[in-house]
Amino acid sequence: METKNNNKLGWLFASPYLIYGFVFFLGPLIWSLYLAFTNWDLIAPNYDFVGFSNFIKAFKNPAVQSSFWVTYKFMMVFVPLVTAASLAVAMIVQGLPKLKSVFLIGFFLPYLSSGVVSSLIVKGLLSYNSPVNAFLRDTFGIKINWLGTPFTALMIVALIIAWKFAGYYALILTSGLESIDKEVYEAAAIDGVSRRQRFWTITLPLLYPAIYTTLILSFGVTFGIFTEVYQLTGGGPNYATNTWQMEIYNQAFKNLQAGYASAIAILAAIVTFISIFVIKKLLEMWGKRNGWV
Amino acid sequence: MVGSNDKNKLSLTIRYSVATLLLLVMVFPYLYMVLNSFADWSQVDRQLIPSSYSLKSYSWLFSGGETGTPRPWLNSFFNSVIVSVGSTVLMMVFGIMVAYALAKIKFRGRDAVNNFVLFHMFFPAIILLIPNFLVIQKVGLYDTYWAMIIPKAMSLWAIFMYTNFFKAVPTTFIEAAKIDGATEFQILYKIMVPMSKSITTVIFLFLLMERWTELLWDMIVVRSDEMLTLNVLLSQMFGPYAGYPGPMYAASVLLTLPIIILFIIFGKRFKEGMQFNLK
């Protein structure tokens, strides 16, 4: 009797998710797989089954190819940048006897900003007559078209997103640092271990779980960039900042090629899934090899 | 001994200076935004720290600007409030309900539901963008508040966090309440929810912040001007070739301020919750 009641109750409590999961996840997933093999344009009532031609078209499309490479280029800049910045913030703040939480909350502030707002500010800061550019022009005669040059545009997008997440990851790392026993450091200091050695032999291994968390989170961020790119560069110049989301948005809602865009979305999901899986395995191997886990 | 004390003092001073410098660099874009929203229009984006100030940007924003019609800013602010609060409250309620079932009710099929949640959570969401848009269109919700609220009424992250939290609550609490004749709903709202105050604060603030700053979804499911959320309006108004940088900063302040105020109000509890969260 008791279990029968529990069964009903369990399903009742879980039902909001089950309904949601069916309507906004499982159903759409199947629909999306089906759409990817059609040439539907989002408007016309009729469409044809076109086999794998959407996928073949996607493979040949320079915009799709670039969104593949942009992800990894972005990753190579963003992940080290945000990890180094959050680690530096955490290490510096950790040693402060007072005002620690005031500093941490200050560093956390950028995380609260909308991508639209931070992009608009950066755009203002980099406009032709902006104080930054005026200074560079007048003192050094340097003229940089920040958002119009492929390399700098990508750097700026990576920088804004790193700015946004560094304080948040610093919070995670600080709590990791706090859980390290002070006595370990004292013992090491007595043994005459240098500051640098202490970092590599004590802090890093004991902080590894927290670092692992921030790394996984930041790799995850890499595959979901849209707002900053949409607002700042629209994917340009010359596809240099064209992310998967940007390309899918353009194909589906600008060019109205829903079938083709679904095929790109499936490719993006496969790439994301495999990449995250491989990265996770590599990080775990790296941790195990050094005996940190 | 004195020497080492001096050395400590010096290293602390250096630490504080570096921390302050870093903090200034991090918060600088915000300062720049606020200062420029109050700057005289001839100085916006011309000086790092403007020297003369006026309220013109704000009065432009709220009075009529270019068109002279009552500006859509307050309206879109209101839209943002409805959509974000609506979504976030539903995400919290559903998150708590589902998590309670997954953590504390032993029912047949629980493991299956749990696995499905985990699978859903790690599934790249991007693939769902187009079909979810089509679902909204097919059921006739396009261009309504519901289009922005219902598909964003479930947070897998909230379910995950609450499930972990509830699992840590001793079952004896629940059994004792049951003996006293409490129903499951009463247990949930009178025992579990009050116990989770600090983690609830963290989850609520994170969800609200994320919902408040959402761009892509709100942009594609809404068409008419009076339905736009503040974030989308800001994005559309001040696109690539827009003028009026002063009002742009004022509108950015308008979008940023509510979230910062909320985090300050809940600051202490947020800190406690984060500490629990990160353990």
UniProtKB/TrEMBL annotation, chain B:
GO terms (BP aspect): transmembrane transport
UniProt cross-references to InterPro entries, sorted A to Z: MetI-like, MetI-like_sf
Record's subcellular location: Cell membrane
Origin: domain of life: Bacteria
GO cellular component labels: plasma membrane
Main localization (coarse): membrane
This protein's UniProt keywords: Cell membrane, Membrane, Transmembrane, Transmembrane helix, Transport
Topology class, membrane: Multi-pass membrane protein
Alphabetical list of SUPFAM superfamilies matching this protein: MetI-like (SSF161098)
Residues passing through the membrane, by range: 12-32, 77-103, 115-134, 146-166, 187-209, 248-266
Domain ABC transmembrane type-1 stretches: 77-266
Family statement: Belongs to the binding-protein-dependent transport system permease family.
Protein known as: Sugar ABC transporter permease
